[in-house]
Amino acid sequence: MKPQLIVALDVPSSEPLQRIMDALPREVIWCKVGLELFTSEGPEVLRYLRKQNRKIFLDLKLHDIPNTVAGAVTSAARHEVDMLTLHAGGGRKMLKSAVEAARKFGESAPKLIAVTTLTSLGQSDLQELGVTRSLTDHTLALGEMAMSAGVDGIVCSPHEAAAFRSKLGTRAILITPGIRPAGSDVHDQKRIATAEVAIKAGADFLVVGRPITQSQDIGKAALQILKEIGTALTC
Fold first, then answer.
1. Residue 137: predicted pLDDT
2. pLDDT of 82-103, one tens digit each?
3. In this structure, are residues 174 and 156 in contact, taking their beta carbons and an 8 Å threshold?
4. Which residues of 13-52 are buried (b: 16+ CB within 10 A; e: fewer)?
5. Coil, strand or helix at 155
């Protein structure tokens, strides 16, 4: 699979969304809808993106009792999303229930992607939460458990991607947030990397938000990331 860019539409409403989509080049196929935008606009934003012929990565990080998560997966599948996130921390039973719900939709089912450790968290944050193993060990353990429960892939930082690729082989879809152009603002992310680093680590999808959506020239910023991806593939 050739690595692809996902543009994170982390905006509060349809008004800035429209401005971004008008400027986003057609070469960008994938868009991420997160909790803020989905809470504001609901399923209508998914219908809008489908009309724009974009693939949808619905990033709601589902984490609830198994029956509730299974119902949410069913609803997402009916809205024809292409990928959907769940928290690996919800446990094996929750993840298996999600997988069973998705399988009912056959080939049109969304790919289920497990979130391991948020890229905004560092080792000290895990310690405060009572997690005694290292951040890397914790992240890898969650990811391996999730894949064994039947999910299609993992969200992980670029710094864990190589270890996941080594352990899981090509069967796992690896999605890396926290991608930044060299020299850009890191904002609230603690575990970031450039497109080149993520691709060489084995990432399939690179999620980029603010460096594109808050740029004065959205189209140029998106094309620059696509160029970086292309360059990394030839190195």
1. 92
2. 999 999 999 999 999 999 999 9
3. yes
4. eeeebeebbebbeeebebbbbbeebbeebeeebbebbeee
5. strand
Beta-bridge mates of residue 62: 86
Residues 6 or more apart whose Cβ sits within 8 Å of residue 69: 62, 63, 86, 90, 94, 97, 98, 101
Backbone angles phi, psi at 31, to 5 degrees: -130, 140
DSSP-derived pairing of the beta strands 153-155 and 83-87: unpaired
pLDDT, tens only, 116-164: 988 788 899 999 999 999 988 999 999 999 999 999 999 988 888 999 9
Positions marked catalytic: 61
Predicted local confidence at residue 230, as pLDDT? 87
Would you list the domain boundaries of the chain?
4-234
Containing 194, the helix (H) or strand (E) segment is none
Residue 30: strand, helix, or coil? strand
- Scan for tokens 């589902």, then name that residue: 62
Residue 166's nearest CA partner among 146, 149, 150, 143 is: 143
Confirm whether pTM is higher than 0.90.
Answer: yes
The CATH class that applies to domain 4-234 reads alpha beta
Amino acid at 102: A
Instruction: pLDDT band for 185, please (50, 70, 90 cuts).
Output: low
Q: How far is 96 from 148, CA to CA, in rounded Å?
A: 9
